[in-house]
Write the structure tokens for this entry.
Amino acid sequence: MTMHRIQHISDIRTLTKNWRASHQSIAFVPTMGNLHPGHLSLVAEAQKRAEKVIVSIFVNPSQFGLNEDFATYPRTEEQDCQLLNAAGVDAVFLPSIDSIYPIDDQTVVNVTRVSQTYCGASRTGHFSGVATVVCKLLNITQPDIALFGLKDFQQFNVIQCLVRDLHLPITLVGVQTMREKDGLAMSSRNQYLSPQERIIAPTLYKTLCWAKDRLIAGCHFKTIENEAIQQLTHTGFDVDYFSIANQHLQPAQSNDQSFIILVAAKLGNTRLIDNINVNF
Ligand code: PAF
């Protein structure tokens, strides 16, 4: 069966209506394209959990800041569609910017508290752009489940709040980060790294692993965070944050049983993020 390639909202609605009428469950994987094995692992997980899988490819302008990489974000639609077809995806949804943001569009979705810290503090408006487009895409596709990568842990938290607070009848699934052999988290932005930066980049994950060991050894949160920032800065990163938090992204307390260590740092012009879980 060849994959449906759909641009219009009315066509994806007709397709999903037919699937629902024949009692077939639907999983949805939203992406910005430029697909790598991390995205394909979301697709594989979606196929295990539902009868039909839709992937969207939409480089969402509203989640990029004025000085960010919207114009240069890698767009590889043909290659992406070939990969998705080979992976057995049922439909790819490729909406235009005008259809997602029609003239006189006035509605934004703002998930307040969880959008303000970490990446939200340095990327003003980013999570409002993410929440708005995800809400629109979920309303258009009306899936039973939607899958997101956990590399963007704060994004996953924002979307969990959105689905809960707006009472959307959708189950969210977070999928573990896929890594290169040297530990670097897979990301479309890795290709911006120069050969020299690419050699340094895995230090981000190595430092997270080091911090995890220190946390398990009982070291103080602030000491670990400060030493990690020093190590990364010494290696050539410009660190935005390196923080130990609880699973709801609030400051960690010493009696917590489960932590997430989060980092965002720039190497040259490339902003990288990553995280690691620690469970006691
Ligand atoms: O994680 C992404 O690729 C994007 O933020 C998403 C969820 C597709 C929304 O544009």
